[in-house]
Amino acid sequence: MAALVERQIQSERVLTVNGLTLVASKTCSGTWHQVSGDRCDCKGFEHRGTCRHLAVALEAQQPERPVCTKCGRQVNRLFAGQCAICRSSLD
Ligand SMILES: [Zn+2]
Ligand SMILES: [Zn+2]
């Protein structure tokens, strides 16, 4: 069984387990919302068809992005070893 790694994304606590993403509830501590594919089990999703957990889970499913040491921003893609934002070398 893979170790559970809790991550902090957009100030939310996030766990990813076997394709399922769990996002800690802010209103109800100790509760985790399950996000699977493009669905979440929270009330907000039920009413609006979208919610914050979904956005956070989507981000959690992206591979870790490198952070530029110069400008401190996350870089979408390494562009020939350079930061696409400030153009500084990333190595
Ligand atoms: Zn939700
Ligand atoms: Zn940069």
Q: Would you kindly provide a written description of the structure presented here, covering whatever features stand out?
A:
- The chain is of the alpha+beta class and 91 residues long.
- It has a domain at 6-61.
- 18% of the residues lie in helices and 24% in strands.
- The protein is built from two helices and five strands.
- The chain has helices at 43-48, 52-61, and strands at 6-9, 12-17, 20-24, 32-36, 39-40.
- The chain has a five-stranded antiparallel β-sheet with strand order 1-2-3-4-5, covered by helices on one side.
- A hairpin with a 7-residue loop joins strand 3 and strand 4.
- The longest helix is centred in the middle third of the chain and has 10 residues, at 52-61.
- It starts with 5 loop residues before the first strand and ends in a 30-residue tail after the last helix.
- The mean pLDDT is 84.
- Bound molecules: zinc ion (2 copies).
- Residues 33, 40, 42, 44-45, 51, 53-54 line the site of one zinc ion.
Short summary:
This protein is an alpha+beta fold. The protein has two helices and five strands, in the order βββββαα.
Question: Helical stretch count?
Answer: 2
Quote the beta fraction.
15-25%
What is the C-alpha radius of gyration, as a whole number of Å? 16 Å
Helix amount: 10-25%
Give the strand tally: 5
- Secondary-structure-based class equals alpha+beta
User: Which parts are unreliable, with pLDDT below 50 for 5 consecutive residues or more?
Assistant: none
How do the strands of the widest beta sheet line up side by side?
Answer: 1-2-3-4-5
Major sheet, described briefly?
A: 5 strands, antiparallel
Ligand names: zinc ion
Q: What's the N-to-C terminus distance? A: 34 Å
Order of helices and strands: EEEEEHH
